[in-house]
Amino acid sequence: MEISWSRAIGHLWKKGKRERTLVDILMSISVFEDLSKRELASVRRILYRREYGPGEVIFRQEEPGMGMYIIQSGRVTILSEPEGLVLSELGEGDFFGELALLDDSPRSATAIAKTGCQVFVFFQPDLLGLIERNPRFGMKIVLRLARILVARLRNADEQVFTLHRELQEIKAKTKGVSQE
What we know:
The chain is of the alpha+beta class. It has a single domain (16-179), classed as Jelly Rolls (Sandwich). It is built from 5 helices and 8 strands; from the N terminus they run H-H-H-E-E-E-E-E-E-E-E-H-H. The chain has helices spanning 5-14, 22-28, 37-46, 124-133, 135-179; strands at residues 48-52, 57-59, 67-73, 76-80, 85-90, 95-96, 110-113, 117-123. The protein has a 4-stranded antiparallel beta sheet with strand order 1-8-3-6. The chain has a 4-stranded antiparallel beta sheet with strand order 2-7-4-5, with no helix packed on it. Helix 4 (124-133) packs across helix 5. The N and C termini lie far apart (84 Å).
């Protein structure tokens, strides 16, 4: 039986990239990686879908945080204001704003849709309700959030240490040049 090359690979090009489902995305996010399929389905039921156009503000720095955002499609820019310093650019499967699940402090940065995007929002009251209904399940999520935040804090500490060391080296070089 002879199969033509173009026919054999044609099906690869016709369908294009398969769009990931929300459950696919949730399973790939570290916050939810320890959850069973049943638990993921429970999370999926309490998420709220939002759409943003290019350039639309998702939230602003200093506004009260209400929840965590999960990007299903599109790109989001996270920036520090008022300088407009870009801190990060995120895409499909990324999440941001997770501190609001644990803390009532104002947002530490602004999130803007770089392209049209579809996101799902996991609000703090829904997490608290989940913890009330099923403490073990809710604590799985809280512990994963804590681990993620600890890793980020350790990374920030390393960056501060590196910057401090570089600053000391620059000061030593500058001091040497000014003494000449």
